[in-house]
Predict the structure.
Amino acid sequence: MESLESIEGNERYVFERADICNNIEIRRIFNQHQPDVVMHLAAESHVDRSIEGPGEFIQTNIMGTYQLLEQSRLYYSGLEDRKKGEFRFHHISTDEVYGDLGATEILFTEKTSYDPSSPYSASKASSDHLVRAWQRTFNLPTLITNCSNNYGPYQFPEKLIPLMILNALEGRELPIYGDGNQIRDWLYVDDHARALLHVALSGEVGETYNIGGHNEMKNIEVIKKICSILDELCPSKIKGVTSYEKLITYVDDRVGHDVRYAIDASKIKTELNWMPHETFETGIRKTVQWYLDNRTWSDHVQDGSYQSQKLEGI
Ligand code: TYD
């Protein structure tokens, strides 16, 4: 709830806490709030956790999407024609559904075949298929976006970038899987949010749009960049650690680790006039600064107390 503090008092904002698998609650929320657009971002999203325990990923990402689609279909069927014309179900997905690009120069386009590697990406691929089927079979007006790796403020510190920033500040090891040469295409979260609005408001029904950051980087380069910004903004006071880079530790590789993901984002540029504003250089600086300025937020996430925070105004 602390992530939403800045908009708590806004009269255009309402918060409902519900499990997307709970069709009774979702039906009530649809009827009460009468949405024009549903943006479905609710998912289990961390590959390592999907390897440790795939069950929640199957439940939330596949069954949850199925329930949301069914509740959307029910709600949509009861709308008057004008509202039907405006309604959209927008499913937010990942480039990981396309699988591993390995050492090739290829980029993922919207036509690339699905080839997921992990329980996480397989569950997202499955949910994308459900969304397409609901469009084709039931004429639900759907949109799908597949984005590259997000980063920025408020990211849960199980993902690479926030984990490395917080570990460094606490003097803990910075674990790099394998040789650190895996490549990801980094997308600043505000750029992603802008792209999602473009698609939700102007995307063509039934279409898929890839969203990428034009920032392909090796993991080791990302971590070294974080260390150098931290060295500048918050020099280490840890004994024997003159630069945060000293904390880099190579650990066993992730099983089934995808070597490279990279997005061809030309469709969304040509058709919807969207381009990322941030370079990795500007985005990572803002991100590191945000984590330095918001230690209470990350403390509450790391100690688990965020889970019992009061739902203000409910
Ligand atoms: P992650 O943030 O988990 O995103 P994804 O697996 O969806 O790409 O990981 C990004 C990359 O960083 C990925 O290649 C795995 C690697 N990684 C590490 O080397 N060490 C870590 O501690 C983590 C969490 C990830």
